[in-house]
């Protein structure tokens, strides 16, 4: 009844995982009931209890991380904070969730590498779910131009580069931010919206190529860091 109450709103696959957890609890309960029954009918089970306690303490210390993973897996299934298909970022690693098990979560990176994530990391680290609010994400490309450049022209070219890409959504429209006066450049950021953030590096690279082309055609230079060195002779 407790299992059905907890898992009543979960998908069928997750209900099967909960069934496995509760089966372990059931067998543990059977062992306790047998020991208590033997003690009640007069069998001396003090030694068994003492040995069991020492054994359980040793197993608990040895399998502490395993228990943390299983408990975290239960929390993930109940909380539903991560679903199959979500794009997550954890410890700087980004992947699309393929499978959520009781002990681990399996995710695949953009390079088709498999990430096997112990579930206890969800409780001890900050997890970024890129797609919990939807599949669209706001991405950006930073660029610097030389001092003295026509900033309005730069703004127009950056918007043109973003709007010209087939993967950039029309709404919200691309926007240009004048981020700072740098040491050697005027720094800008072009922000745009994509519907597939998992493959964002491809359109971002394309937009950088287009920015470089437009800047060359319109004589907008991208400076490199420069330093003046004064040599004092004594």
Attribute tags:
234 residues; alpha+beta; 5-stranded antiparallel beta sheet; 3-stranded antiparallel beta sheet
Can you offer a commentary on this structure?
The chain is α+β, with helices and mostly antiparallel strands. About 45% of the residues lie in helices and about 20% in strands. The strands form 2 sheets. A 5-stranded antiparallel sheet has the order 4-3-2-1-5. The chain has a 3-stranded antiparallel sheet with strand order 6-8-7, covered by helices on one side. A hairpin with a 4-residue loop joins strand 7 and strand 8. Helix 6 crosses helix 7 (about 200-215). The termini are far apart.
Task: List the topology elements.
Elements: H1 2-6, H2 12-40, H3 46-62, H4 64-79, E1 87-90, E2 93-100, E3 104-108, E4 114-118, H5 121-124, E5 127-129, E6 137-145, H6 151-163, E7 175-181, E8 186-194, H7 201-217
Antiparallel strand pairs: 1-2, 1-5, 2-3, 3-4, 6-8, 7-8
Helix pairs in contact: 6-7
């Amino acid at each position: 009844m407790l299992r059905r109450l907890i898992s009543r709103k979960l998908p069928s696959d997750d209900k099967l995982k909960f069934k496995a957890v509760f089966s372990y609890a059931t067998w543990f309960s059977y062992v306790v009931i047998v020991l208590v029954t033997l003690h009640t009918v007069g069998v001396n089970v003090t030694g068994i209890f003492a040995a069991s306690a020492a054994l359980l303490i040793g197993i608990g210390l040895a399998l502490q991380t395993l228990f943390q993973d299983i408990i975290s897996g239960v929390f993930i299934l109940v909380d539903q904070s991560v679903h199959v298909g979500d794009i997550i970022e954890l410890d700087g690693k980004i992947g699309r969730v393929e499978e959520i098990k009781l002990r681990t979560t399996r995710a695949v990176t953009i390079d088709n590498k498999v990430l096997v994530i112990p579930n206890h990391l969800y409780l001890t680290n900050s997890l970024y779910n890129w797609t919990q609010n939807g599949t669209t994400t706001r991405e950006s490309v930073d660029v610097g131009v030389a001092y003295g450049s026509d900033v309005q022209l730069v703004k127009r070219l950056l918007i043109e580069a973003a709007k010209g890409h087939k993967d950039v959504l029309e709404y919200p429209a691309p926007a240009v931010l004048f981020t700072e006066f740098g040491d050697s450049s005027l720094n800008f950021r072009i922000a745009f919206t994509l519907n597939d953030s998992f493959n964002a590096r491809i359109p971002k690279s394309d937009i950088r190529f287009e920015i470089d082309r437009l800047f060359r055609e319109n004589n907008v230079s991208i400076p490199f860091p420069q330093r003046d060195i004064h040599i004092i002779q004594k």
